[in-house]
Structures are given as C-alpha cells and as structure tokens.
C-alpha cells in the first residue's frame, strides 16, 4: 500500500512530461528557462518562463554608460556574496533612447539585498520572443544591426512584434571571452 503513492506520482510525472529543463551549452551558469515554439531558418520563436533579474537604467548607450551600469550591478551582486561575472546579461533598448541593463540572478536573491536605489529586482513575466543568434564581440552597434536584420526577417515571414522600435540584446559570455553567443530578442505581438 505504501508503494502505491510513489508509483502513482511517478506515473503522473511521466504522463505530464515532467522533464527537467537543461540549459543550453552556451550558458555557463543558470539561465532563464525557455521552450522553443518554432524554428525558422533565420530566427526562432521562444516562450521564456518568468525569471528574476536585477536591473538599472543606463544614462545613454556609450561605453561609459554601460560600464557605470555594470558597476552598479556588480556592487549589488558582491553584497549578496556573488560575483555576477558569468550571469546572462540583457540590454533592453527602446527607440535607442531608453536603455536598461540587467543581469539574470538566482531565485534566492531578495529585494533586501539591494541597497542602491538605482538598482531594482525585476521579475520579468512569461514572454514570447523572436530570437536571432549572432556571434562576435558585443556592442550597441552590433545589437542595433542584428535587431534590424531580425525585424526584416520577421516581416518577410509575416510575423509581427509588439514594438518595432524595441529590442533586447542578450549576452552569455564575459566581454573578454574568446567566443561570444549573442542574441537579439523582439517581443511577439499578442
């Protein structure tokens, strides 16, 4: 009788597709979880699960703004006993005027660990995005160029985005890495 419950749980998990998500090879640490919805020649559609990030607004899009934002997030990470050096990074731009810099963080980080008022703990909701993967040293310009390529590919494929002037660059390697896995995300319109 005592074996019935564990056996039933095993059968239910198997029937419900209880697979454990495995991070892709380019992710050296924890990554936001996603499911590939559709693969296309030049892009794919992914459904990202809700995930936790620390984020700060950048003053602009030049390298000094990026370094200042990174420094703010590094300080928060170190105060929580982490380095953050290998966490995935997001740079979200709207009209090239509003820019946010974010690091993916472990689920156990709390708002109380953040003492800098310009840094926020942000729970990004579940979202469907179109993704273009590219390599090379990350930069605002390469992000902008690849966002345009992705947008053009989406138009050809008759896919629509929530905001044609908004995109997110995702990076998974430190800047000094010899290889870089970069992505451009554009949110799918509902």
From TrEMBL:
GO molecular function ontology, one term from the record: heme binding
Top-level taxon of the source organism: Eukaryota
Signal in keyword set: yes
A GO term from the CC aspect: cytoplasm
Coiled-coil features, chain-numbered ranges: none
Keyword Nucleotidyltransferase: no
InterPro entries to which the protein is assigned, alphabetical: Reg_factor_effector_dom_sf (IPR011256), SOUL_heme-bd (IPR006917)
SUPFAM superfamilies assigned to the protein according to its UniProt record, in alphabetical order: Probable bacterial effector-binding domain
Keyword line: Signal
Signal sequence residues: 1-22
Family: Belongs to the HEBP family.
Protein's recorded name: Uncharacterized protein
Taxonomic lineage of the native organism: Eukaryota, Metazoa, Chordata, Craniata, Vertebrata
